[in-house]
Amino acid sequence: MGNAKSEHAVPPTDIEFVFSAGGFHTPCVLKTTLPFKFSNPNAPLYGHLSSIDSSATSMRLTWISGDKKPQQVIYGNGKSQISQVTTFSQDDMCGSTFIPSPAKDFGWHDPGYVHTAIITGLQPSTIFNYKYGSDAVGWSDEIEFRTPPAGGSDELKFLVFGDMGKAPLDATIEHYIQPGSLSVVKAMVEEMRNGSVDSIFHIGDITYATGFLVEWEYFLHLITPLASKVSYMTAIGNHERDYAVSGSRYVTLDSGGECGVPYETYFPMPTAAKDKPWYAIEQGSVHFTVISTEHDWTQNSEQYKWMRKDMESVDRSKTPWLIFTGHRPMYSSYNSLITVDATFRNVVEPVLLANKVSSCEFGLLLG
């Protein structure tokens, strides 16, 4: 896995529209427009929130911009925090002479710069307003968000799902779309407006970008009405991490050469270190143990020891619900469509039973 870097990114490139006939197999270019420039290529975009601990008194805000200079988030009664800035480059993507990848070749798209800032001094289950950006590049709209309940409080209303992906809002044909994602987002926005959502957990296969890096921005745009207003927590899946030379538990080409770098840059979770994407967090009466099914989970592995220690340490008088989440399924009634790894079940299930796990939440692993 490559390491995210703080250089190499450039502002968004100009756009040309190409009109063609003949379909994807026999394309024929009919007309190409002159280049269109972005009115503000450095604009701050796609702000999304995530929890950093179980106190719900601080939240992480992440957004992107074409400008590498630090920006700000302004919130509450004039409080502000300066952003930390990072990015990743084509060199960070996986690939080799023998196994080329879209991410290192024709699927590459410069991500610009990813800004993160920790909003502090908050209260659990409370509404605050914020905006992000700078005078130099412009500001987002003012946005209202609600912090999740602190760990150990009485109630939590959350949404959990996996494998959502993204889709265009029109009849455009794009690489690897998931048409149902539009209906899912619409339904979740309605639930949120009704006050029925404290937080969201997206358990793997986030964008299905699979090496076509511009699709991360499509996805961020799609979830902005949700992720800018409530805590949006994630777990890594095969389409974020796996590649033949990545060291993943499963040797597939599913990430298209991304190897977890864009995922961890766009969605920094409260993990211990880079490329160790497992963590635990408490919200309301629930303790969430979030693992990576794509990293080593076998007995005596670092992750196995961590998950066992974490679940054994849960104070069930404080958080009586213990929910275990990971992308690949441990059980399935659709064995013709989904491969269930019996070894994973045999290794992990005894730990879940020993710690009286309340619920297991897995992604679908459809491909």
TrEMBL record:
Locate the Calcineurin-like phosphoesterase domain: which residues?
156-334
One Pfam match, given by its short name, reads Pur_ac_phosph_N
Gene3D superfamilies given in the database record: 3.60.21.10, Purple acid phosphatase-like, N-terminal (2.60.40.380)
Q: Where is the signal peptide?
A: none
Q: Return the InterPro entries for the record.
A: Calcineurin-like_PHP, Metallo-depent_PP-like, MPP_PAP, PAPs_N, Purple_acid_Pase-like_N
**Database matches in CDD domains:** MPP_PAPs (cd00839)
- Similarity remark: Belongs to the metallophosphoesterase superfamily. Purple acid phosphatase family.
How this chain assembles, per its entry, is:
Homodimer.
Protein name stated in the entry: Purple acid phosphatase
* Source organism of the structure: Gossypium arboreum
What taxonomic ancestry is recorded? Eukaryota, Viridiplantae, Streptophyta, Embryophyta, Tracheophyta
